[in-house]
Specification:
By secondary structure, this protein is α/β, with parallel strands linked by helices. It has one domain: Rossmann fold. The protein is built from 5 helices and 8 strands. The strands form 2 sheets. It has a 5-stranded parallel beta sheet, with helices on both faces. The longest helix has 16 residues. It is globular. It binds adenosine-5'-triphosphate. Adenosine-5'-triphosphate (ATP) binds next to helix 1.
């Protein structure tokens, strides 16, 4: 069976308030989805629900064509949230080694891409020895992006991946996304920026209008 992400009838709420309902989508290997919409319309909630970090009210999220179909979907994805999920007091390289072990397949001890190489890819070559907290906001975001490279996971969920990044780094993010898709991965990115992601599907969140 080919690799495919299938979302059917997904809905979620925040407290008593419905945020979205009945979202259906299918993304094949190499596919991408850009999620857009005004502030507060539910982009982050949607990504967090896909990541298993926020409970769904309804619907299913299935990955087809993976080695172990009984494995939770969350084990096949990387979630890059608003926060970078790195320890400020550890060095950048130590953070990446942690993530490689945490996100790698069971029994897999070596990073998919060595931290130094991942850092070079995001333009932070030679900075692995610095405490994460020493980096600028944009450098911290780039280091968080390197996290996606050190352990291969086929689905990337990216919430505002270009937050704090300069224009050149936005092109770097586009290249990372293109590389992941070319390797058969799937990318879902929520963004306010006009990212160049060729052939991407789009989902515009509009918020949930309660009938009068
Ligand atoms: N932790 C929370 N507790 C309660 N309500 C929340 C929480 N986080 C978000 N919300 C509400 O859920 C709705 C959707 O928020 P969400 O963060 O998903 O939107 P968004 O489209 O990602 O916004 P932005 O573009 O500002 O990042 C908003 O009305 C927000 O107030």
């Amino acid at each position: 069976m080919p690799f495919r992400l299938r979302v059917d009838g997904l809905g979620a709420s925040r407290g008593e308030d419905p945020i979205f309902r009945a979202i259906c989508l299918v993304l094949d290997a190499g596919g991408a989805l850009l999620v857009t919409g005004r502030n507060g319309t539910g982009k982050s909630t949607f990504l967090r629900t896909l990541a298993g970090l926020h409970p769904a009210d309804s619907g299913t999220i299935l990955l087809e064509g993976i080695a172990d179909p009984t494995a939770p979907v969350r084990e096949s994805l990387h979630y890059l949230g608003h926060r970078n999920a790195m320890k400020r007091d550890l060095t950048v390289a130590e953070n990446l080694v942690f993530w490689a072990r945490f996100s790698g397949r069971p029994g897999e001890t070596d990073p998919t891409v060595p931290p130094d190489a991942a850092l070079a890819t995001v333009g932070l070559g030679g900075l692995g020895h610095l405490p994460f907290g020493y980096l600028s906001a944009g450098q911290q975001r780039r280091a968080a992006l390197a996290r996606l490279l050190v352990a291969h996971r086929p689905v990337w969920l990216m919430d505002e991946p270009t937050a704090a990044l300069d224009t050149a780094s936005e092109r770097m993010v586009e290249a990372l996304i293109a590389g992941h898709r070319a390797a058969g991965g799937i990318v879902i990115a929520a963004t306010h920026q006009a990212l160049d992601v060729p052939g991407a599907q789009t989902l515009t969140m509009s918020g949930f209008a309660v009938p009068a």
